[in-house]
Amino acid sequence: MAASMSRRIFRTFGSLTSLGRGSSPNLSANTSGNGLSSLTSDFKYGMALLSNRKLSTSILTPDDTFPSDLLTKKTVLTPDRTIGQYQDLVIPVTNFQNEEKGFMVLAGDVFDVPIRKDIIHNVVRWQLAKRQQGTHSTKTLSEVSGTGRKPWNQKGTGRARHGTLRGPQFRGGCVMHGPKPRSHAIKMNKQVRRLGLKIALTARAAEGKLLVFEDLALPTHKTKNIVNYYNQMENTKKVLVVEGGAIDEKLKLATQNLHYVNIIPSIGLNVYSILLHDTLVMSRDAVNKIVERMHTPINR
Questions:
Q1: Where are the compositionally biased (Polar residues) regions (predicted)?
Q2: Angle (CA) 95 241 271, round 5°
Q3: Which end of the chain has the least Cβ crowding within 10 Å, N or C?
C-alpha cells in the first residue's frame, strides 16, 4: 500500500529523470523497509520540487491517460456584454454593396445607457397623444339649426312637455357634453424625451439591429437594389433608413414602393418610429448628427 501511494505521489510531482535527477534512494526503500518513512521523504522531496517550479502543480507521465470526457469539443460561450455601462461601442461600417468601409465609434452616453421600459412607455404615450388632431366636435343646443318655437302646448295634449325640438332627446338634436376641439398633448420633460431616444438606440445596438453605412448612395433608382440587400438580411421585417441631411432622390425612388422600408431624416428620428421597425440603418453623417443633438444643452 505504501509503495502504491509513493508511486502515485511520484507521478503527481513529475518524473525525476526528466527533471535531471537520476534516481532517489527512497524509491528503492519502498519495496523493503519502512514504507511510511519513504512516503514521508518522497512527499518532502515532491514539495521541494513544487516550491522550485512554482508555475505548475502537476506533470503527466507517459503512462498516465488524460480523461476522455475533457477532450470533447465544447462550444465556448463568451459572456454577453453588460448593457448600460456607458461604454463606447465599435461598429463596422458598410454600404448597400456590403463593402467594408472601416469602423465607427458610437458614444457610450447615447448608445449604451440603461434600459428602462417605463421611460419608453411614457415617451410613446406622449408621442401618440401629441399627434392626435383633436378636431372632433359636436353641436350644442345653440349650434343646432332649427326653429325655436315651442312644439306644442304645455298642457292639454297628454304628451310630455317640451320647449324646443333641438334638444338631445330628439332626432337631429344637439349632443350634451360632447367632444370639442382641443389638444390631447400631455406634458413631457425634455430630459425624459431625450432619454427615451437614447434608450431606443441602445436597444437596437444591443440587439445587433443597428447598421451604420458610409453613405446611402445607390448606383440607380431601381427598387431591386434595395430588395436584393433586404433579402440578404436575417430576421428582418421592417427597415428604417436614417439619413443625416437631405434624402437622396435615387434612394427615395427606390424605396417608395416598398412598404417594409421607410426613410426619415435624422432631425425627425423618434422613439415610436424606431420601435415600429426591427432594423435601423443609419449613415455615418446621421450618427454624428444624432450624437451632436444628444450632447446639445437643453434650452429651458
A1: 135-145
A2: 135
A3: C
Taking the alpha carbons at both ends of the chain, their separation in whole angstroms is 86
For residue 103, how far is the Cα from the chain centroid? 19
Is the residue at 73 inside a domain? Answer: no
In a domain, 78, yes or no: no
Which among 238, 244, 246 is positioned nearest to 276, based on CA atoms? 238
The tally of domains found in the chain comes to 3
Q: Quick one: which of 213, 207, 215, 263 has its CA closest to 239?
A: 263
Instruction: Fill in the DSSP letter of residue 70.
Output: G
Tell me: do 103 and 215 sit in the same domain: yes
- Tell me: do 199 and 266 sit in the same domain: yes
pLDDT in tens, 48-88: 544 444 444 344 444 555 455 554 454 544 456 788 899 99
The domain in which residue 271 lies consists of: 89-133+186-295
pTM: 0.69
